Amino acid sequence: MKKLILASITTALAASVSSVFAHPVNHQVENSMNQISLVDGSPIALGNFVLRIGYFTFDTNFALNNAAIAANVGNLAALNANFVEVNPPFDAAEQLEGDTEEFGMNGDIISTGLWYAYYRADNVAWDATTFPGKPIYGWYQEAANPNNMAIFTQAGLTFLDGSSPFEADRNMIVQEVNANLIVVVGNDRTATAFDDYQMVPEPSAALLALAGVGALAARRRRS
Amino acid sequence: MKKHRIICSAAAVLVGLSAWAQAELPVSLSTGITPVVITGGTKYSTIGLPYHRQPLGRAVVTAVSGAVVTHDGAGLGTIAPNTHSVLFLTGSNYGRAVRISSYNNATQQITLAATVTGIALNADELMVIPDHTFASVFGAGADPSGLKSDLTPGSADWVFIADGGALVPYFHNGTNWRRVSGSPANANNLSLGGLNAGCLVLKRSPGNITLNISGVLRSGKQLVDITPGFSIVTFTDVGNTTLGASGLTGPGGLAANSDPNLADKVTIPNASGDLVSYFNNTSNWRRVAGSPANQNSLAVQAHRAIIVNKISSGTFRWPVLESFTE
Questions:
Q1: Most CB atoms within 10 A, among A102, B19, B77, B286?
Q2: Measured between beta carbons, which residues in chain A are less than 8 angstroms from residue B168?
């Protein structure tokens, strides 16, 4: 798993005499209208999920990259190895801390199952990373079982560079009315009474679950 | 007349304009002066300019051909390109300000920066007003109004204006104002962008300062053309209003969208002097990044400006609140 550690921000950096002055760059992923649920259908809540913001490196072609992600749902090692992400992720510690508007990860609960999280970086440090120009992915995982997941991206939405303090915010909203949203991994149950996006288990676990159901049905027929 | 913030009470200002044979300026023009705080320490402050400079004159439109408007009376004299604006005082364009691209004194023909339709010939009146400049607002000498001059742009305080849809920074080099990058020409007398334009200050140097803005109080209806790209638009001087009551969105207005990447955006420095961007998600205003809470009640302060990033096509003619009701 590739992680990119961004330097902490210092006062000296902000006071740089460079003609490129320091300013924050913010990248946000949120689900403010439709819940995201765990495999069992319960909504994401404090401590039971992790949101990772970054980009996948399977393929430089966006469609092929998404296809490769979907094909590797049961291969967590491969997904991790091909994911470049901001650090820290929006995990239990960050969820507990809430939105302090500090450099690093921030976010908070909106209401049941609805959360927002954003990564704030200094533009000079951010421009030194590989993120600018890459497509944004929001990778949700169950905290207890990271093999259960949902992954979202949006056509045409990429990480910003730090060239302008006036275009320094980017937000991918995971919601039904977002026509450009792509559910790379996960169930879209928005058309149902659940009105949510649901994480899915790795395929082997799903097959075992189905096998168990099949065996139960066979036993009932014999009896 | 609604109450508004001016230190000097409305006073009669006699303006002698012997060149004008007809349609002279009124005998009295309301003037005012207001202090505006600029936040220091690498912080942003917008400066609204609801007061304009002394008008050159007032006239009746006698002919229109495309963007060229002919007025009655004698010529105004020499007007350099892009240094003045026309304010329409009557008719269907009442309250609309348009920049003057060029002027022919011999023929009394004003070439406007945009075509204006619906002008009633020999009836509608306009006023010609010099634009605010860097020198007229901040001063021309070193450390103008307390902003830091420096030979090195990265060490000086900056003032952004909107130019052609982009936000362009300027600084004072100890001798004169000039662009941060690009032509080193003296920008002391460069227009800040017309009657409706404000500016954005990035004060690197520590400590707050107070800038006194003054001039002739602009009264009556105001229509502000907001075009694609970035604009810095002066807001009303009546008093604080809110994003929700601003009239920026609605039929023909800034584009609202549930996806912030498809919506037009407004940027306003917060109380700490940091830039915060907002969009209207079709239900309410909210931040682009950060809490999605409803920001309809966010105050847009008097004597300030807002930065608009219009990604949608077309021009939005924004009806700003009136300074006072005549």
A1: B286
A2: none
